[in-house]
Amino acid sequence: MMLLLLACADPEDTATVATDTAADVVDDRLGEDDVPAIPEGGERWYGPDVVIEPGQEVQYCTFGTYTGPDVGIVSFDSYQGSVGHHLILLGTSATTIDYADGETVDCTRTNTMMTSFEPLINAEPIDAGRASITLPEGMAVKLNQGQRWVVQSHYVNTTTDRIRERDIMNIGFTPEDSVDVWAAAFALTQVNLSLPPAQASSLSFDCSFDEPYQVMYLTGHMHEWGTSFSFDYGDGVTMTESYAIPEWDPRYRDAPPLNHYEEGEFAFEAGATLRTNCNWFNDTDETLEFPNEMCATYGMLYPSEAPVVCSD
Length: 312
Description:
The chain has strands at residues 25-27, 43-46, 50-52, 57-65, 71-79, 84-92, 104-106, 117-121, 124-127, 130-134, 139-143, 148-156, 162-165, 168-175, 181-189, 199-207, 213-221, 226-234, 239-245, 259-260, 267-268, 273-282, 296-302, 308-311. It is mainly beta. It folds into two domains: 25-178, Jelly Rolls (Sandwich), CATH 2.60.120; 183-311, Jelly Rolls. The radius of gyration is 19 Å and the shape is globular.
């Protein structure tokens, strides 16, 4: 689900935007009345209009540019149809020369292009295809005029039908001068995974930041081959387990347990060691690599005007 956890394909892998109106295509696109109203002063953005084939798992990345005044994002709600797995809003350094506004590409496979992406806001996962976050009063995520964004839409069609989908996002804004504290997404992720078939594997990796941050919430992310997950915090020698899932449930891929923190309850101190620990059992006959399996800690923190990312 996540935040530098995306994989994007080569530029020539342009997605086929749905124009198929054949009788065998089930139209599962969300309508304007299928989701709550746009927040006052906010906007509604859309994912790609695509047909998902029977048995297909695919990710599409749709590009755009925010053209309004500098604002703060105070809420974000994403909605997908029946075969939606997750939707993530990311920022990108890719220009309109690289990808035009409205262009959609198949970004199922990974390559070096992913380094141009970082999470814009980490909404809290509720279920497959549904995520939401509303920030406390006076707090917002910075969105500048001209910010290029990417909507990553992940679909898993386990049916025998061809299904047409289009995702919807409701985004709440506040004027820049009404923001007291800027919040930002954070992601700690390891993408160099190689999990041999028919055996258990483990991975731990460390991150640290030069600035201190208060943590709003954090959670872990693995896929269905995960067996346990934990996050430790400390000085690199003495470490304290701050978040743990001793028995990973495959359902946590879509909606993992979250740790929420009040102000002053948990902070990443400057220079502290942030350690993510992932364990898996690969019961397939093939080596599993990113993005089929993942290892990440992510969430929201403050104060920061930009995403905070550690990726290897």
